[in-house]
Amino acid sequence: MARTGATMVPPFDDPRTVAGQGTIAKEIVDQLGGAPDVVVMPVGGGGCIAGISSYLRERAPQTSLVGVEPSGAASMTAALIAGGPVTLSDIDPFVDGAAVRRIGDVPYSALRSLGATVVSHASLPLITAPVFESSGPGAFLITQIDEGAVCTAMLELYQNEGVIAEPAGALAVAALEHLDIAPGSTVVCLVSGGNNDVSRYGEILERSLVHLGLKHYFLVDFPQEPGALRRFLDEVLGPEDDITLFEYVKRNNRETGAALVGIQLGAAHGLSALLERMRSSHLQVEQLEPGSPVYRYLT
């Protein structure tokens, strides 16, 4: 800045930035011809939700507000629980437009004064089913959504609506199925797409399949003898299941060799039958759980 004379524009932690982002709320009201019943917004650094909620609280206090953070970077949730902004030691950078280690001081103060309430946080299980309500007109809720659900929302937006959204832009849509909204309500979801990268769609699809319960990974100890893999395919895999990854982790002169196996199910409810067939096969099998350190290298 000293060399070029440019002016630094803070991305979220400045009253002027918050006010500028708050003009989105005016656009919403103007385009609808009135205030909506519910507005669902992504939360990153907090500037956007602070601006929109400040405007609507003053001019449309009956509108319910919902802020949605990625579960792997829930800095606003952490701040509201702690009573002030805190720096997260570890975040998942996947939802890059909202993966912020520390919420802005200005946005935090705004949301705190407006009565934002946390309805789920890192000490609770991730939201996988409808578990919270809009709590009536004027509610202001902050929640978080698993990154896999965000990926599923991105794919559905593209396939069903032709909308190309970045991960942060799909946060609000991903939260919709978890909200108990009165029939006939006018609902606005804030969607963006400026940072979308098509080269990431392989990872997006992978995370979505894991979230939907269709993709699973296992460590399988195979006997080092002819036909071992064929027996696994014949005896363990279901008719609609596919192996998407097979890689020996360690193979030497031992009688068995461990392999990393990825399996995509034909339907999520087929997992229990697959596990039962694995137990009956006399193979040593360990299922790798999402969220484990090893899983980070797979998705």
UniProtKB/TrEMBL annotation:
Where do the TM regions start and end?
Answer: none
Which GO MF terms does the UniProt record name? L-serine ammonia-lyase activity; threonine deaminase activity
Question: Which Pfam families does its entry note?
Answer: PALP, Thr_dehydrat_C
InterPro entries reported in the protein's UniProt record: Ser/Thr_Dehydratase, TD_ACT-like, TD_ACT-like_sf, TrpB-like_PALP, TrpB-like_PALP_sf
What cofactors are annotated for this protein?
Answer: pyridoxal 5'-phosphate
The UniProt record lists the ACT-like domain at 216-290
The top EC class, named as a word, is lyase
Q: Which reaction does it catalyse?
A: L-threonine = 2-oxobutanoate + NH4(+)
Q: Which GO terms describe its biological process?
A: isoleucine biosynthetic process; L-serine catabolic process; L-threonine catabolic process
Q: Write out the similarity annotation.
A: Belongs to the serine/threonine dehydratase family.
Instruction: Please report the name of this protein according to its UniProt entry.
Output: threonine ammonia-lyase
